[in-house]
Amino acid sequence: MTLSEAADRLARAAIGMQKTQEIDRIAAAHRPRLSAFFRRQKSLTLDQFSNYKFLFTESYRTFAEKATPNEFFTASDFNQLWSKIDTETFDDLQKTITGVQSEGVLKGGQQLLDSMTGHFEGGKWVEGVPKFWDLSNPRAVAWFQQHGGSLSYIKNIQETTRNELQTIIAQSIDGGWSYNQTAKAISDKFDDFGRDRARRIAIHETTQAYEAGNNEFAQGLKDDGIQMEKHWNTSKDEKVCDTCNQNEADGWIPLDQLHSSGHQYPPAHNGDRCFETYRQAQTS
Ligand SMILES: [Zn+2]
User: Fold this and answer.
1) Looking at residue 68, what is its pLDDT?
2) How far is the CA of 273 from the centre of ligand 1 (A)?
């Protein structure tokens, strides 16, 4: 490794430390809001589920199992239950996620801005006058139009909840659980969501938005006529996957070039701890 390679590696590690700390801080600040969302969703679910209490009475079971064994809490019963929950919580979840994204994109852009001591104007470097970045930046606006409160992502979160709920109800039917037992299992599952899942979602969404803000700011510099390049960085421990190691091995590549995995920047997967670094393209 040459001296300049060592310096480059050190500089990237320092940026990584800064980005990781800030992402953790933003995610920690938003996690309680996601937990609160799952608490609201829990009350609504339990409330809706109480409409089906009659299905759990001994007399109904005996009757239903004798008459039509497959008709006990049917797929259509479940879909009706879920569709009400989904409809009533979708906007709430979207608002919560958009809150995480807003702070991520804002702080991600500012991180790169803060590392610059000036900005380019008409192809000329102007010292000491930082380029401005906030959510009204056209690039931030465009990113939000495309990904803000991302529908497919929110549908995914709801879909996971739906599947978990369906699993509990299926277990309840198979095991002949009482209504109270089933309601308790649902309640416990939502409490789990409020802890681990809320944390994972907060970290993933923050990482995604922060890296997006970082990248959009770099794109803005490119718009100003600066040749930019980027570098994928892993956390360099045994948990790093092959995909991310390969992306890191790409080295410094032009801003618009895709990494080996096909990603523009991290995260490449859920739980990804990688980060991107940017610099003006080196002429040497
Ligand atoms: Zn990674």
Assistant:
1) 57
2) 5
Q: Measuring CA to CA, how many Å separate 55 from each of 85, 164, 166, 179, 225?
A: 19, 20, 16, 8, 68
Q: What's the CA-to-centroid distance between 16 and ligand 1, angstroms? A: 12
Who's near 187: CB < 8 A, 6+ residues apart?
Answer: 42, 46
- 216 HSE (CA, 13 A, CB side): 28
- Residue range 90-107, pLDDT digits in tens: 999 999 999 999 999 999
Name 109's Cβ contacts closer than 8 Å, sequence gap at least 6. Answer: 133, 134, 137, 140, 213, 214, 216, 217
How many DSSP H helices and E strands does the chain contain? 8, 5
Q: pTM (2 decimals)? A: 0.85
Bridge partners of residue 86, in order along the sequence? none
C-alpha 241 – ligand 1 centre gap (Å): 7
